[in-house]
Amino acid sequence: MGAATGIRVLEVSGTPRERGRQYGAGASDLIAAAIGYYSEALTQQTGMTWAEITESAAQWLPVSERLAPHLVDEMRGIAEGAGVSFLEIVTLNVRGEFVYNHQTRSAESAAADDERDAVDGCTSFFLTGQASGTGHTLVGQNWDWRTLTAGTTLVLRIVQDPLPTVIMQLEAGQVGRHGANSAGIALNANGLGGSFGSEIGLPQTIIRRLVLDRNDLAGALKTLVKTRPHIASNALLAHRSGYGIDLETTPHGVDWIFPDAQGVIAHTNHFQASVPPQLAGHYRPVSADSLLRLPRVKAGLDRVAAARDADESLALVRAAMSDHLGFPEGVCTHPDSSSPRLKQWSTLLSSCVDLTTGEYRVAPGFPCETEYELLPWNLYDGPGGSEHDEIPEIRTQHIAVDQH
Fold first, then answer.
1. Within 13 Å of residue 176, how many CA atoms lie on the same side as its CB?
2. SS3 of 369, please?
3. Would you say 126 and 259 are in contact if contact means Cβ atoms under 8 Å apart?
4. What does the pLDDT look like over 330-357, one tens digit per residue?
5. How far apart are CA 10 and CA 394, in angstroms?
């Protein structure tokens, strides 16, 4: 076991610009680390300078300002609070879209390698009714991404009345990724890969936050179905009522999966509902281990139905998310020391949210080694902040865990 470390937990409130400034100030060191990583990794990958990369990221601003002006304003606030340029924050929010646009296509093997560079490798789950063992609705995921970004992750609580309060786990500087809100709506997402052309669509960080900004389930579903993304992504949408649906979204269309008869959905990083016609006949999963992870995590999640109480249910979820078949890759992914330093992958954190009780748990690091820790807020707590003329005091803390 390594030394005790933790994940930063930050709460912000106020107007979009105020929230951004609080966020930027409270995570300035993490944002600087994220910029340091991506400036090195993306420069190496594309041959472009960091200035050229950030300037290229501006191409996603018009659609973002048109469909989510409050989130662009929040990004401006983040830049101000962190003392970095606005376009650097935009780049952190479109890193997947940028890489997708700059994939190497000189050879099939190179293209396959570069395609994975744009895609978060994640394993998501939904359990409801008898599937959870307690009758509760549980959602969560293992979030797999570049190992060197692990130190830039944080948990952010956004109080934004009249919009719902949102709790998310994300990379520092981003305005959206995975989380849940006070209306009982949760979103977990997985990259899918695939080439769909270069027409500009909305970045995933914006889409995911727009979903979590909705008070109504129908509106959240409509956001996913009607919004044209720039890259393909899987979205597992859930509600405290026990409703769940998995949407495989692409720039050209959407397909879906409902829970099985037991009340389970599991999704990894390949198309499961159908292969889009644009990829038919030449589709290759963005990560081969996705085909390994899906049946393994599904088998593990099926065992949760036997839980006799909430503690046993959580322990069985953790066991499912800790599966190591295929090590170092697998449901719980560890770095492969033979891979280049900047491209090594691992599970950054695992989450498990009880939409019935509002309890939000995160295991920073590998779930095989790190227990789920309860966050200091319940999803259904009161706002915990209010709109003021002055920016409220920034509140941060860490959850201590053991991690390599």
1. 26
2. coil
3. yes
4. 999 999 999 999 889 999 999 999 999 9
5. 8
Distance from C-alpha of 219 to C-alpha of 202, rounded to nearest angstrom: 17
Whether residue 403 is predicted with pLDDT greater than 50 in this model: the reply is no
The whole-angstrom separation of Cα 156 and Cα 176 is: 10
- Measure the CA–CA gap between 300 and 187, rounded to whole angstroms: 21
Kindly report the number of other CB atoms within 10 A of residue 398's CB atom: 13
Q: Supply the DSSP string of 27-44, one letter for each residue.
A: THHHHHHHHHHHHHHHHH
Residue 6: which of 271, 267, 272, 375 has the closest Cα? 375
pLDDT tens, position by position, 202-250:
999 999 999 999 999 999 999 999 999 999 999 999 999 999 999 999 9
Per the document, the length of the chain is: 404
Q: Which tens digits make up the pLDDT trace of 254-306? A: 999 999 999 999 999 999 999 999 999 999 998 999 999 999 999 999 999 99
Identify the residue whose tokens are 């929010």. 93
Is the backbone of residue 129 left (phi > 0), alpha (psi -120 to 50) or beta? Answer: left
DSSP E strand stretches across 279-344: none
Contact call for residues 9 and 396 (beta carbons, < 8 A) = yes
- In sequence order, the 6+-apart residues with CB closer than 8 A to the CB of 376 are 9, 397
Torsion of CA 353, 357, 358, 362, to 10 degrees: -30
Q: Is 365 left (phi over 0), alpha (psi -120 to 50) or beta?
A: left
Query: What global pTM score does this model have?
Result: 0.90
The tokens describing 366, both together, are 């590998």
3-state secondary structure at position 15: coil
